[in-house]
Design goal:
The complex is a heterodimer. By secondary structure, chain A is an alpha+beta fold. Chain A is built from eight helices and 20 strands. In chain A, the strands form four sheets. Chain A has a six-stranded mixed sheet. In chain A, strands 15-18-17-16-19-20 form a six-stranded antiparallel barrel. A five-stranded antiparallel sheet of chain A has the order 6-7-8-5-9, with helices on one face. Chain B has helices at about 30-35, 85-90, 115-125; strands at about 5-10, 15-20, 20-25, 35-40, 50, 55-60, 65-70, 75-80, 100-105. In chain B, strand 1 (about 5-10) and strand 2 (about 15-20) form a beta hairpin. The interface of A and B includes residues 36, 41, 229, 297 and 317 of A.
Chain lengths: ~375, ~130
């Protein structure tokens, strides 16, 4: 793996596999990553109907250890960590003092005294600075460039394919957010029933000697390689927030409708907690829209009965619905005929329930 | 190399002259860069274009992009069926996927544009 000097673009151990599969490689958060393997829409459909395989080894991986790790992280993060059971994953955030969101992340309680964490690649160095400054007695380790990585297998066939790879039983991770360990010809694999698509799926945390053979075997067993372009389509169909779009420093978990990510926030002591408790009800809300042909893109203004009421956060062409979908913050409670300013042209959009595509992740 | 019977803009449009009518389209490289197309907007017949003026928009799953005219003149015909048959643009950008025909004022309408060899260097630098 490449070094992390600022001139070097990082690549995952699968870079040559991606190129061999005809991937369009693009720079993303300091990494060279596959945008697509030929068809963003086709890859999205594969995840919804069979199974897709993502290389998400660019994501930051941190490990926290020590008898005070859970208690210290409980105060450092938005979410409750002390009551997170061993063997479970949980979605939460790093907040700043004013309640604004610095990043979203998943914590994996791998042991009483050990918490593994996956965070956004783009925020890795800032997250590391913030977390290490907030933790006093906890041992912190950045594993991101250890030569291993994360593979995500997502879709209705994911369980069957993973069971076939392991050659063991198929009773791993019975519930959403469960952690597990399965055997493989390359040693035990640490897995979690998590993902970013809304489908039933798993994230596999692979060591340096496992990543290439496990990737190749999962493709051989029928998973389709899926790039970051499709990952964005799938996560927006499922209305899973993306940092820098639906969530950022100027948005609180209350604005974003993500109170579940700050469990116990009304009574717990944590960075940002006092600010959140002192706030009035949000004056904005996240809304979903569908459009006829053209994609409402980030930054386009949203109008309701001719009055500007907000701005698009994310827009993609949904492969599942075969039409454009988008999210945007609007003034809370506005209702009427919605339009979007497409580079100078006002076109109608329709308010939609969210998520756009129902979740199967718990099924 | 791409066809030598026409001229190219750096922004990946082509123009092919037949008498005083220039047929205009975008290159296969532009289509490949855009990816899967979802929308195309063409101008009305009768509109007058300056060289370099944006006359339409092409949108893909990934991005939306202006389409610029390599020539000055009046739009005399558009490829009407194309917005509803984006496959033709996706798969045949240099022929059946043409966008508009423009009546130009003189035989030097294409002067100053890139030939196929020079355009190939633009493609190479962006690939």
């Amino acid at each position: 793996m490449a070094t992390s000097s600022s001139e070097t673009i990082l690549q995952t151990p699968l870079a040559s596999n991606h190129e061999g599969l005809g991937a369009k490689m693009v720079p993303f958060a300091g990494w060279k990553m596959p945008l697509d393997y030929g068809s963003i829409l086709g890859e999205s459909r594969a995840v919804r109907t069979t199974a897709g395989l993502f290389d998400v080894s660019h994501m930051a991986r941190f490990l926290f250890k020590g008898p005070q790790a859970a208690a210290e992280l409980d105060a450092a993060l938005g979410g409750a960590i002390m009551d997170q059971p061993v063997g479970k994953a949980r979605y939460t955030m790093i907040l700043q003092d004013d309640g604004g969101i610095m990043d979203d992340l998943i914590t994996y309680r791998t042991d009483e005294d050990e918490i593994f964490m996956v965070l956004n690649a783009a925020n890795r160095h800032r997250d590391w600075e913030i977390l290490t400054s907030r933790l006093d007695q906890t041992e912190c380790c950045d594993l991101t460039e250890d030569g291993g990585g994360i593979l995500a297998i997502q879709g209705p066939h994911a369980h069957k394919i993973l069971a076939e790879l392991s050659g063991g039983g198929s009773d791993f991770c019975p519930a959403f957010l469960d952690l597990g360990q399965i055997p493989s010809p390359w040693g035990d694999l640490f897995i979690a029933r998590t993902g970013y698509t809304g489908e039933h799926g798993y994230e596999i945390f692979v060591a340096a000697e496992q990543i290439v053979p496990v990737w190749e075997k999962l493709l051989e067993l029928g998973a389709a390689p899926v790039g970051l372009g499709s990952r964005d389509v799938l996560r927006l169909e499922a209305c899973l927030a993306l940092y820098g779009h639906e969530i950022h420093e100027k948005i609180t978990p209350l604005d974003a409708g993500l109170r579940f990510a700050i469990k116990g926030w009304k009574t717990r002591e944590f960075v940002g907690g006092d600010a959140l408790r002192a706030m009035d009800e949000p004056t904005i809300e996240l809304a979903g829209f569908t459009a006829e042909k053209r994609v409402p893109r980030e930054g386009y203004a949203i109008f309701c009965d001719g009055e500007e009421v907000g701005e698009i956060c994310s827009g993609v062409y949904s492969a599942t619905l075969d039409r454009p979908i988008a999210t945007g913050y609007i003034k809370k409670g506005v209702d009427g005929a919605f339009t979007v300013d497409y580079r100078g042209k006002q076109l109608p959009v329709e308010r939609s329930a969210m998520p756009f595509v129902a979740h199967n992740s718990r099924g | 190399m791409r066809p030598e019977d026409r001229s190219y803009l750096d922004s990946h449009e082509w123009a092919k002259l037949d008498g005083d009518i220039a047929t205009i389209g975008i290159t296969d490289f532009a289509v490949e860069q855009l990816g899967e197309l979802v929308y195309l907007d063409l101008p009305d017949v009768g509109r007058t274009l300056e060289r370099g003026e944006a006359f339409g928009e092409v949108e893909s799953v990934k991005a939306v992009s202006d389409v610029n005219s390599p020539v000055a003149g009046e739009v005399v015909e558009t490829n009407d069926g194309l917005p509803d048959d984006l496959e033709a643009l996706q798969n045949d950008a240099l022929n059946g996927g043409w966008l508009i025909k423009v009546k130009v004022s003189g035989p030097d309408a294409l002067s100053g544009l890139k030939n196929a060899a020079a355009y190939e260097e633009v493609v190479a630098s962006e690939s």
